[in-house]
Amino acid sequence: MKLLIVDAGHCLSLALAREASRRADTELVIEQGTTITASRLEAIAPDAVIIPPLAHPLNMAPADVTAHADAVDTCLGACQSQDVALIWCVSDQLYEEGLEVPIDEHVVPAPRDDSLRRLVQTGDRIRAEFQRHLIVRLGPLFALEGSHAWLNDIIGDLVAGKAVRAAEDVIFCPTSADAVAMALIGMLQQQVSGANAWGLIILRAPNRSVLLPLPPWCAPNC
């Protein structure tokens, strides 16, 4: 299986590189930039393109969030033209904004911020226009190196003598970037083996901010 991930310096890109190097069944191509062209995809011929998440879109400049959405749109167009699966990882912050109650997993987020709404529109476009996609919801990524690494930012603030608040993991539960890398490769190995199961995936450490109703077949037995 050959995978391509954009944004080489992202902590998830580094974690995927570590995991792929330990496996004989996975080849990883890492792009420095945040987008990919159709001609580049045709030359590399990967089984899937992976887009790492913005770690804290609520705290980022709106222009940076919008630029990320534009980059995802560009990758979507390239993947559609070459029929290459698109894997877009998104932060749980997108689902938390504006909510004062636990998240209902069946509700599409409706943030108040214009740039965050732009991310939602991008997700809507992916679901409507391209069947071969996974939108992977993640909490903050727990890693020591790379951009968008939750722990790395905290250590940097401590070294700089800045105040650091206790992690509010009742709301945002950090997830190991290495664990996410292992899970992504495992899921995509199943896809290339014929699973053909696409859509939204929730992949993060346990937390208490989410309402997960039991399925009807399970409730009577639980």
UniProtKB/TrEMBL annotation:
Matches recorded under InterPro entries: NAD(P)-bd_dom_sf, RmlD-like-bd
Domain RmlD-like substrate binding: 65-200
Matching Pfam families: RmlD_sub_bind
Domain of life: Bacteria
Signal peptide interval: none
Protein name: RmlD-like substrate binding domain-containing protein
